[in-house]
Protein: LHPL2 protein
Amino acid sequence: MCHVIVTCRSMLWTLLSIVVAFTELIAFMSADWLIGRAKPSSSEEVDNRTGGSQEPYRPTLGIYGRCTRISHMQFSRRDTLCGPYAENFSEIASGFWQATAIFLAMGIMILCTVAFVSVFTMCVQSIMKKSIFNVCGLLQGIAGLFLILGLILYPAGWGCQKAISYCGPYASAYKLGDCSLGWAFYTAIGGTVLTFICAVFSAQAEIATSSDKVQEEIEEGKNLICLF
Structure:
């Protein structure tokens, strides 16, 4: 018989698992990993409507995508164009970034799988006589290791030609040159930290759903058990 067990700790772990998966996915897809040096053009130096100076635009570069500004001289307006600069995996600017993409993708796939499974932990608490929380916690720990490897390898690719075109000639492995780190990189780091927190907290979720109080309510014949 299926028992729906909801506790404060198990619900918090489920929500945190979903948040972590989406956080890493959004960071991976973003082009805001590197913020390039300002590149003013003659069409951007003066605002035709106000006559004042325009702040130089700083393009952004991601693992496989980029954002840049395109000027329309005829209409005196500027559009920001974002999209992948690499049409396939082999066109990613650096071998280190290719490795980063692989490790991050593997970690994110595991996190998304755990996030999906975590929704069903209210009804299913074990798989092949093993706690589903412990299994998911182990998978989250493995995903965290993949994410760490990806984040360590990413700065090694700052010396590629693509990064140099954004960050200037002084950019090299682990040296930003004229660039600065964008929000996506910090978001990926924050998501990695939360991944390990989730892995540790999964043990608390398992303890909460297998506590004596839960067992007592099961013995009383209750199918819906909510403990907060």
